[in-house]
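User: Can you predict the 3D structure for this chain?
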Amino acid sequence: MKLNRSDMQRFLKSPCAGVRLALVYGPDRGLAHDRASHLVRAVAGNVDDPFQVATLTEGDLEKDPARLVDEALSLSMTGGRRVVWVRHGGRRTAEQVAALLKRPVSESDESAFVVVEAGDLAPSSGLRKAAEKAGDAVVLPCYNDDSQTLGQLVRGILKEHSLVIEPEALDYLITHLGSDRGVTRREVEKLVLYMGGGSGEGAEEAWVSLEDAQTVVGDTSVWRLDAIADATAEGNAAALGPSLDRAFMAGTNPVAVLASVSEHLRRLHYIAVRAEKGTPPAVTIKSLRPPVHFTRAPSVARQMGRWSRARLDRALALITQADADCRRTGTPTQALCGQVLVTIANFALAAQKRG
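Assistant: Here is the predicted structure, written as structure tokens:
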């Protein structure tokens, strides 16, 4: 069952007891991750509780064709309802979701709540079809923020910290953000820190000026992330290392780097899917929103000659796993981020040599 916007907001506040699976998908990976995380917390209380939350990837399901059903039917050891969170769902996830949803549910059934987080899915996707047809599953599509929803998000985050943004500053942020909810949230949180962290509810309001917004969310930060994404996807190891070093020296979080590269690879994936259907990559590149800056267009065109849809699926699975690993306490996040991006760059380099 596909939820509309109003139903979706109600479901996010209180996941229905009669629902055993939620599919969260869409081109905005950051928003999909936000909503999936929210559902996990709403049911289990904490995304990191190993007793209440089982986190799986497409690779896990590839190794064990019955893993999802087994996890969904496992009872909680500590009471309450368990959650099975599938990250980066794909073809194998679709097969196991279909098998799970075909199983009859009894009144005494205490199966786990399953949250499947995926990227952009076509209407013909097996994963979408299985979830949309099931009476005890819901589908939450996640599209890129428009100017209205982006403005609401920015104002909402700032309001939590007793900050009010000037119209010119808000227009600037709307222009420079919005392609990914996760990146947008991190950039606005950086702005909050720059403004002193805010004083919380009840404190005297402070104003965020255009100068403040430009200082924190400048073109240089966006350029650094774009340079890393292009070097990775082009297989340019000589440029990747220095670009990563500059980003880390500037304080960029490795998770934000992974999110940016992931978003770029998903755009390449979209171009590859369109190419399989007969649309030339150059045509699709010109139609992308937000558009590819003209200075990057030649690099993106070269990248498309080195990536197949299958290879992009593999690269995205690696980033998803690296993102999960980086969120664990004590992980050397910069080293892990660099390692996975070098691995992905080598995919592109190997493809170039074969070509």
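The mean pLDDT is 86. Residues 155 and 211 are 17 Å apart (CA to CA).
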